[in-house]
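Dear support,

I submitted the protein below through the web form. The confirmation email said the job was done, but the results page showed an empty box. After a refresh the structure appeared. I'm attaching both so you can tell me whether what I see now is the final result or a partial one.
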Amino acid sequence: MSGGGRHRRRIRIGLPVAAAGVAAAVAAALLTTSAGAATALPQPTVKPATGSVSLAELEKRVAGAVAGDDTAGETTKKSSLSASTTTSTGTVDPKIIGGSTTTITSAPWMAQLWYYDDQGTADESDDLGFFCGGAVVAPTKILTAAHCVKGYNWKAYGAVVTGTAQLPTTDSSGNTDLHGGTVTLPWRQWNHPSYNATTIDNDIAVITLANPVKATPIRMTTSGDTASYQAGTSAKVYGWGRTSSTSDDISDTLKTATLPIQSDSTCTGAYGSDFVKGHMVCAGNPATGSDTGTTSACNGDSGGPLVVNNRIVGVVSWGVEDCVAKGAYSVFSKVSTYVGAAYPRVDDTNLSGDHKADLWVRNASTKTGYSKDSKGTSFAARESWGNWDGVNVVLQTDLDRDGYQDLVVRESATGDVYWMHYVQSSGSWATKQIFDNWKTRTRIVVPGDVTGDYLPDVLSVDSSGVLWIYPGKGDGTFATRVKVGSGWNQYNSLRGHGDFTGDGKTDLIARSKTGSYVYLYKGTGKSGSAAFSSRIKVRTWSGYNAFDAVGDITGDGKADFLARTPGGTLYLYPGTGKASSEIFATRISQGTGFQQYDIWG
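What the results page shows now:
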């Protein structure tokens, strides 16, 4: 084979087909005493997400996909911009059509998604192998297109390569060269529940990796962003897709092209009802009918990002066959519309490793800690975590965004606060003190990313009622605290974990001491006094004496809430995403006996 074993990849236009939980955190015993701790702190254990999947197996998947000749998804109406990867010896100009070569340094968040399902027969024609692009939006999260994900088992057959501008190659002996990249196992997958394989509408997905990658993430744009979509705005698309309408080769090297955003009316004029206003955005100048004078995304670019001002505003979705038909534009999923649905999947760690938030509680008399795995609208039988005496706060979060849920724990005797997190390299948990003498803090909250930098933060209310943000750095350390405001001791409960309003921003729920009024504080993605909008009264709850917010319990992408009666009945209030009195759906009883617990995660 020419080129020292390097494969040229030829895509075949296909038309986009419509497509686990991991071991729970389990029993623990009293373990080592943390430095500076007055008492021995307990420590949970977990099984790693990667299981028995080896590096060799992941590389085998990549090699199989490199030789594949299939495309992700199919439709009768339009061509998805996914690609097969069959090799050829032809050479083409090294660019997205009309674009230019770029480096991984300029786009460190780019990811390659390789899928290979060997059917196990001697006939290779029944094997399935294809390629899509994606973008790292958190250390374990890849944003991509739904038509690259739905209907496929990425954990069983996929591999994600990051950290390189080159596509992998295989030599005559079958050895795979990742060209400096890192291959990682996909662990979980989510696609928009309303994705339509025929119209390629709601075409957005998130893949969760089993291990965090070193690639620098890029953020999605915000739900309120309109400036990035103004006609004429300059945007950049990135990918390894086809470089010519006359050749099916996709590019060995990462390419980029600059495209002007087009107005909805222009896109509708080109595509009619196929273009769904509000769900899609199109970009580029009208294609000329040939490669000459055309700048466009093309097959193989599916799932890759459209970027404005260092934010993803679009995900490569679909276009016309061969990409250069006269008057055509590239079409992208409009990220501002979908960030509210996608962001909860970027911040969805939980104790059992699925898409549903779990509950952690402690028995008041025995001091035994328990986890209760979410089954969607109810919880499984509790699992013991051993003795958790000596602490008075236990909160569930993921400060280092490694895909494993951490715990923030306050020691009763000293008020010192510790971060307990799983270390994959050692297969054990580490305990680190993060705050000193928080004995008089009346509230501690770990709602996720408050400041809009995709890094989880810690909030606390001091004895005088001042709410402070401690901006997280993503590694268990924090920037200088920032004051939000005073008066927060008027509340006897302050909880939050995720987004209650569907805009992709972290919110808080507070209940007043007087009147038992429940207020929503909508997050703005900013810091300081501007971190939350003016409160909105959403309920009056006088019949409850304990609350918890652990995230998305039902698995629908909306943050949920828990409330307990003095008699011990626990109710689940499913989130609706509405910032009004309808913020929660009809409550669902979780049973009785919950009065025995004095700490809620």
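Response: this is the final, complete result; the empty box was a page-load delay. Helices lie at 55-66, 154-157, 264-271, 335-346.
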